[in-house]
Structures
1.
Amino acid sequence: MALTVLLAPLVVALLLLVVRPGRRAEVLSVVSSLVVLGGGIALAIATVHGRVVHELGGVIRVDALSAVMVIVIGTVASLATSAMGRTLPVASDAATRRRAREYGVLVQVFVAAMLGAVLVANLGVVWVMVEATTIATTFLVGHERSRRAIEASWKYAVLCSVGIALAFLGLVLLYFASAHAGAGPRAATLDWTGLRALAPHLDPKVTRLAVGLIVLGFGTKVGLAPLQSWLPDAHSQAPAPVSALMSGVLLTVALYAILRVRTIADAALGVGFLRTLLVVLGLASLVVAAVMVIVQRDLKRLLAYSSIEHMGLVALATAAGTPLAIAAALLHVMGHGLVKSVLFLGAGEVHHAESTTTIANIRSLLRRRAALGGVLAAGLVALAGLPPFSLFASEIAMFRAEVGAGLGWAAGLALALLVVVSAGLLRAGRQMLLGPGEPAADPAPHRAIAPLVGALVVCAALGLVAWPLATLLHAAAGVLS
Amino acid sequence: MTGVAGAVIDLAAVAVLVVGIAGLWRRDLRALVGLLRIQGVALALVAAATAATQHDVGLGVTAVLVVAVKAGVVPTLLGRVARSDPGARESAPLINVPSSLVLAAALVGLAVIVGAPLHALEPGRAAALAPLGLATVLAGYLLLVTRRRALSQVVGLLVIDNGVALMTFLLTAGVPLIVELGGSLDVLLVVVVLRALLGTMRSRLGNVALDELRELHD
């Protein structure tokens, strides 16, 4: 099953090399995403009671946490691919056809690389897959070929590759420490289960250096401050579906690596070291997001800084590290994935209709484009952490878990910063949505709006009834304790 | 690890760092790419000599891979870019050459301090050389942040990567082969992608230094 999930986007990528860009190619992309989503649900059913699925001679290892990540990837990919046709110009000549094809293929490769990262057993291979996402998305970020898009994609590729090189150095040191953990050099491993077993015997000094480097390296890709400078540029310049994938799920795939490393670090070093590091990075991210959201003038950059905020919140919950905190963090990852995709795709529709994403130039959307305006309004309310959406529930649960873990002061600070960010989001929403106006002649078609409404309904439902997800999230959190 | 192989490892490991620091000194872009090729050869020698002393077939394969990718394909790809722009020089590094060499010396000292626990854990000769790898990584970072030409930044990135690779060979006789293969493929693809991006930059924007690209800000 896991192998099918991994192969689906790769097979479709090959097909897209020969299928003429257009309606049929779009359908293929959506089918691939739905296969991933369905496979994720099947894997969740298989692993929810603690079973671990091994495939491909142990290279693939799936537990409940991997299954949760596959579901998030499948969900966001389904939303993003369903909107791909809206952002591409009609393939009229050979050059636009070539670029449309490149776009479709790279999105599938990107999705496959994210799936690889959450499905493999070896932390070194996780690293290879995360770096592969950078490679696949560099051209996607620069897809517009404008001066700004080229600048953003250069910055993205160089900064993320440099950051992630740190993580590789950290992994090498961890491998070195595992060779000296008393079980002989043959026991040296990068399989995270093997490392977890050896963890109590790892040399603390070397492990501390290793874990610090790994967290900073993957943290660059998560967009944690002060390593976030590439993120607003890349997320604002990429086409809307790519932004949705990057903000909605790529950031959390990198965070997944940190979650796995945390169990090793805590067993080797005690909880203090990584907790301090993650609290510092998490709070720094919240401060950066709060300041930048208030002064922001562009809708897509606003959404990008909000992603930094939400990753900061999840980092704080990871720092707390109790099963309750991790379960809440995973619910937050799901809710954020849904809402952020909706908003980036909505921003794409705004750009399509109004030819701008400057907040000051967008007015009275609720009157002029009721459906799109309504989606944006609901999305911003959800993103601000207000009920009935699941982000409200997960934020409350994360804060409570942090207080329980003795991080009450950090939770208090985070809450204050969260209020600032939410106020900034709602202020931008008021500017864009309210005001008098006449209905526009060219509203977005139902097939563009319907998936977004569906995603918001799911997000609200997750906030109101935890079933059937609660068991899965607790199983996933249990994997890490 | 005695005799010839040990001496080869010592010399080649030192060469990796020296070449990395020389990158801070040269401003000619073609010379920079040439240095990268030498560094790749030195790195492969470390891998090959380690493979020989430990009778490690996987590491032998890795050594061949390193020669092919880091001393062959990658410098050739970048050399083509450098040649297409003859006489290209790093216009004005953010820190001048003498200062960056002094900084590099400080970074080597830092690497020795940070690398101390590694040697404490394994008192062998190879782990004693590990600070050379760390220092190469730091020299690569310095190159990356002080240069303004896109090509110099790519070279900085690759020097960092070579430093990390030197650490793997010295400390653990390489990482598992699947990780090594994946990692090499990633490096190759990153260079291909960045080179293509350089091409797009040139055709769209002309020969710009990166700090002229300053449109994205808040």
Note: Chain A touches chain B through 53 residues (CB under 8 Å).
2.
Amino acid sequence: MQGLTTHKLSCIRGDRAVFAGLDLEVKPGRALLLTGANGSGKSSLMRVLAGLLPAAAGHIEWEGADISEDPDAHRARVAYIGHADPLKPSMTATENLRFWARLYGLDPAIEPALYQFSIEHLADVPTRYFSAGQKRRLNLARLAAGQNSPAGPTLWLLDEPATGLDPGAVSMLANTILAHLSNEGIAIISTHGGRLDELIADHADHFTLQTTGSGVAG
Amino acid sequence: MIGLTLLVRRELGLALRGGTDAVMAVVFFVLAAVLFPFGVGADPAMLPRIGGGIIWVVALLAAMLSLERMFSADYEDGSLDLLYLSPVGLGTLALAKALSHWMTTGVLLLIAAPILALLYNLPVSALGALFLSMLLGTPILSLVGGIGAALTLGARRGGVLLALLILPLYIPVLIFGAGAIDGAVAGRPIAPQLMVLGGFLLAALALAPWATAAALRQAIE
């Protein structure tokens, strides 16, 4: 029951200390809702946790082992949703999802993933014709595709995942996250509050990043 | 290997569906080469002597046209983050991108080159040298160009910076590529030039993906 822990984690971008000395702990089956003002370092923290950015100091442990001992294994357990939607406009929804699923060695069960976000009718439509919300849904369907696969990622890092979603899609996202948590998965979600936080509140802890570079739990 | 195949297939699919870069490169290649005789004169005796060099100069400029886009779309839409996190690795990504760039640009230049050979009145005996030198040389342009594309990722005026970084590195390819054609026109053996180009290609295959991956890592961080 160790999950993910960070010890005195710090991040520096340019000459600026984005955050310093962060101690986090997220148990399997729990979500951590990460809040904070713009520029408080939520996205940087997400990228450090994903292994996209090196930590300036401190370390991250998964199940008690430092992730730097086996970065490949850490990358394999991460599903990362950033601000942008990594979709190619000339490829259809199915082609986009299938590409990512195959690249990550997941079972490309595309149809259920599209269904989970109610975009199954867009399966054969090039994403250049998608609205911003539909693109976000398709991006989030990557999570569902991984969830339906036995080798799916266990650590979800979702950077403001509800941006651009209508209330119905937020509910779908919440259901997807809750299903992940029920499988002993972990989700760290940066958010500015709202319906998603309410829907998963019973399974989530809170952590607020201060613009001074520190953090407050609870 | 599966990752490499997947990435190359995706790149070729994207190039076929939406990319005008490859067509633009070939059109530029032909148009630029056609312009030279208007400037230097169309003396039938002179054209074969300068033809090899001109074809190679415009080939490397044409190959550069689409280099800037090699990683930028993936960088802008967040795909590069996911590619980095995938089991495939940035080295394989760099190799796949260079291979795809060559297949959508270098191969087309290779096909168009004989037309320019006719234009420059190159003897039939030089066509083999032209083909072989470009077969060995154009993949180097893609592999080395990938390093520049990765280094200039996210930079303002990246295209200009890319040219400044990469053009000096293209000089050896230009010298030995054009030298092989000149040698064939003059009836000299061309094996030494081709062997040097082959050596460059092997070195680029071994080193360029690694260097490109390091530059991509910097861009991601």
Note: Chain B has a mean pLDDT of 92.
3.
Amino acid sequence: MTLPASVETVVVGAGIAGLTTALHLARAGREVLVIDKSEPWREGSAVNAGTCALQNKAPDLLLAYREGIAAWRELVSELEDDIGFVNKGGLRVAQSTEDVAALRTASAAQVALGAPIEWLEGNALRDRAPWLAPSVIAATFCSEDSFASPLLTGQALIRAIRAAGGAVVVAGLAGQRETGNGFELATSAGAIACRNVVIATGAWTDRAAALFGIRIPVTLNINMLSVTERVAQFMDNLVVTHIAGRFTLKQFPNGSCILGGGFQGRGDKDTGRKEIDLDQLQANFRFQCSVVPQLRASTLLRSWTGFTAIAADGKPTLGPMPGRTGLFFAFSTNAGFTIGPYVGRLISDAVRGKPMPESTHDFTPGRFAA
Amino acid sequence: MSGEILVIGAGPAGLAAVRTAAAYGAQVVLIDDNRQPGGQYYRHPASEPLRAVHGDLFDEATRGADLLSAATSPNVTHYPGAVFYGFFDDGIAAFAHDDRITRLTPGATVVAAGATERPVPFPGWTLPGVMGAGAVQNLLKSQRTLPGRRILVTGNGPLTLLAAANLVRCGAEVIEVLEAAANRPPLAMIPRLLLEPGMLARGIGYRAILARHRVPFRSRHVVVEARGGARVEAAMVAPIAPDGAIDHARARTLSVDTVVAGFGLVPSSEITRSIGCEHVHDAGKGGWIPVRNAELETSRDGVFAAGECAGAAGVEKALLEGELAGLAAAMRVGAAKGAEAAAHRRRLQRRLARLMAFRTAIEAIYRPPASLLPLMRDDTIVCRCEEVTLAEARRWVREGVNEANSLKAITRMAMGRCQGRNCVPTLTRLIAAETGIDVAEVSPPRPRPPLKPIGVAALAADP
Amino acid sequence: MSGDLRLGDAGARGRRVVLSVDGKPVTAFEGETVAGVLLAIGHIVSRTSPTRREARGYYCGMGACWDCALVIDGRPNQRACVTPVADGMRVETQSGFGPTRLA
């Protein structure tokens, strides 16, 4: 596909942050083109576990993630196609006395920030979730915890963007030149001029930023995920997370269970090579089965890996680049799926000239000055 | 000598590889997900006495007897009921067996994963009573049971004819046998047919059995619908015009309770595709097959592919390729060497070349119509596991989702328990038809381990 | 209906076993698969599909398609074509995903 000579805004990256940014811009009547180095919706957003949970997030980012879940609800009402969004709450479980102490501390901090969190133990916990292993001795329930289908969300967004007049094409960003009136981008599908560029490249944000001479240090995660065969519903559509970390589990409405949590595979984001680490995968499965023993009775259909990156300080990198008119970052850092639609709203507003809210000032892309 | 040889698949090719490699003194690990060796071809009768009673009907059972004993050679470790999981970093191969995951790092690997029935969706093809030709062979050879009382056999290729002949030999009432191809050898191919007189005679013999029992055999005919409530009660059949169009105006209804639909085989190239071996689309060999050199080594060092998984072309080819790959693997690990091994290799290569010349004639006889996609209606299931209809899949292709992995993600085709075996050929053909490109240009989704479903309990087993 | 669809060689089959199919006793022979027995007695619907509630049965006969999966001894999604019969085995037609089972 050939690119137009120019467009008002180019969004680089067809994941959740880039596509929701483009959707809001297109629906506001703005000219927008999303480019991606490969098929759109192929990387982190497409291959993550679909978790949109609140209570497994650090307190300093809790409010931003809460905005993320609210933005997911809005997205459901804004899109024509089903994206499999389910909001039945979630359980964050504890299996040892250390876990319980940690869960008490973490949940107290979250409650202080206004998160709707309920403490469960003993019979109340067994009644709520009889499918949890006896080794689970306490849990917190958060009614905000949700999940969406990564498989459905991407095409729904792409369709909506196209219906609103935007475009999504395969074109890898290779270089740029500032023209005084915006940018001229070099891509694998040719050159294109634009007034604004939104960098929504997820795990590749450091690479894209470098093309603009900007340093955004990141560490790469190669998260492994697995899906089971479809079985009868038994988890009440709850999202299960673990106070010890490295655990997400949910059963989708179609019956398949998604096992995630961030056990690490192997790979290289520059070559795109991603592989399962079998030792880690087995550790992942043992951990999962120690919490939900019934998983043992099902079969594994597929495992895969996805790249995500976390900024050096663990915070999102959002908004206009100070001193670089027309350049915006939409890099969610960890749990980008949960926060993605909120990022899309913020950045589309910023592109349209609205100032970033004060709560996001810590996230400025200028904070990593060389 | 460096390392053992892993042979994946205990069918004709795998067993031939095992027998050869073991004969040269190599250490061999053989895995297969069936409980007994033999694969789909050397099917075990349900009991030993049955072999004695019916062995004469199924010459392959007796021909296979000595090959089966290869699995029990002293330097062979056989894991029956083992599901191959995949290849991982650093050449580690893993399989699930006995509710745990076992790993090894083979010095060479022979992939002999066989083939599965080509899925050709038509209205009603998911009704109980519709089954593949291989499924019928299994029922007859291993279970000694007929699939039903009034049977239509339809499809394409020699296996379907064999299944029809076997049904008749077992006393089944076969109403008609339909072959989608024109079923006439082009004149130029006749000398090639004569290269293998024994096989040619067997094929003619199957037709003779049908003729003797007055079972109509119609070329350029195909089933167009299976009808019934909870099982097949009738089938509609129609001729195929010389241009490949299905002539619905001349459709007839047959009262049957079983439709055997065997449209040939699709090579099980999931293993070689999952590890990134180079592949090529060869319609005559059933689809995507690994590119191999004269030693049957794929583009991945030390990984050999033999038999149906490297091109569906019958048991004789599988046996020869298995022997050649087993020899080449034995040479790779240093067990076979010297002039004797080299001469053995040359002999096999010559024999294989002659056989493949014969096979091109068979492929020409059974060349199917350009497309059987028009058999489908909008509500025909294209993905049996996830229950996706043609209309649902086509809608997304027309939305621009015309790359196999993306279409898989949005439709859930190829995401079910069959791991795409029953829908990927339809998925790629649909993309090709809708976008006007050749099916050879549409890469199937890359398979990911596990290549067949693996019990979670095995993965979660303690180390 | 003249008996079942087994070929006339009962004397050459394995030891006689009795299983139950949807609660009814059925005689089978050791060495047979569940699918072989079900087809022999004309019980060709293994399950109804989870989404469209359509009948499904024995299709590929080699463990690849999973269409013949049903409930065996309380465990759903067991492939009839690769499961040997055993005395006392309980075989049930599967509805949708079948029963939830405990590990």
Note: Chain B touches chain A through 33 residues (CB under 8 Å).
4.
Amino acid sequence: MRSFEFFEPTTLAEASRLFAQEHAQLLAGGTDLVIGMKALTETPQSVISLQKIAGLAGITTDADGGVSIGVMTRVRDVELSEEIRNGYTALAEGAAEIGSIQIRNLATLGGNIAHASPAADTVAALLALDAQVDIASADGERSVPIHALFTGPGQTILTAGEIMTRFRLPSPASGSHYIKHKIREVMDLAFIGVAAAVDMDNGTITGARIGLAAVAPTPIRATEAEELLAGKSLTDAILAEAGEAAAAACSPISDLRCSAEHRREMVDVLTRRTVREAVARAHA
Amino acid sequence: MAKLPVTLTVNGDGYDLLIEPRKTLLAVLRDTIGLTGTKEGCSTGDCGACTVIVDGRAVTSCMVLGVTAADKAIMTIEGLAADGELHPVQQAFIDTGGYQCGFCTPGFIMASKALLDENPARTEEEFRHALGGNICRCTGYTKILEAVMQAAEEIRTTA
């Protein structure tokens, strides 16, 4: 690991000022950054820890019935939160898929998203749950929907000095579910990840959102599939149409993990499966 | 960069140290303090050999910068026995032969200890899943799981 200057600011303004400098990196849980620094794929000149800034960790209920999750919230706490498990099940399921318990005790929700891996385990659920990302900088605050955050593998719209502060989730959907397609039970990366969230009224799907991970340069929403489902009741025929539309929306690569063809086929299969389960949970 | 003054609390003892920011908690424990019970395996968070307990949570110490561990309660395998008595999970590993070469053992014991503190009423399947971040290169998993189940029973019955 190369040497670097270490900072542990206690305010966001100070962190933002430091982060606006060249060759600066933010440190959250460290499970990506520390490993990257050892491998010399990350060679920052300054490392800015966020752990001493008050208010960046924790899950709170919002006045509008939704929840806010601070970026420094450990993914193990997201996984175990009763509020998240009950109201935002897909996100708890995604969090539980990351690495091992030891890693989830370190890794943060903010880090999982800021790393901008197309295969991040929480991102499909945050897309399906329509998360809003609050961002702070020296110039003030802004907020973007999570589907507008990513621009490429490892790339986001964040500019110099901008720091994500929290994810705001609207009041819970009727049901949600996440499936990670993988080989090992734990400590594996997703071949693909599919999350679905549905709003139901009297047996009719009034709205559906589908998040896809590891099937395009960025995590994406399968908007055509979502539109096909809206206003319908659940049938095999409509599920088949939605699955095909989701598969058509992705642009997967072939790599050592699996082929693009397999990924596309499994997006079809797992879209049908996640939507069916999300609807079942809405009725439960 | 210059070394930073940091006070670490390890197994209840305070250590006033000067450490380089790039040193991991694992390196500080082993090389600076001299507590070599915690092992370095893969150094990428995959094997669990370096597991220690920080503020009650099992973590892979190879992924933690030592300077970020100030003001936290760090427990290593050396701190587990109390008043000369082995912790039930240590005794269980001995009783069942839950070790072969022993290199992964401190990590398995610390990960198990944290799981048992949290909930000793897990099923074997649940323990197996929860210990998925620890690898035994001798493949002695059957005895390791026996040890964890024995320790769980011991803790449940004496609680």
Note: The domain at 88-158 of chain B is CATH 1.10.150.120 (DNA polymerase; domain 1).
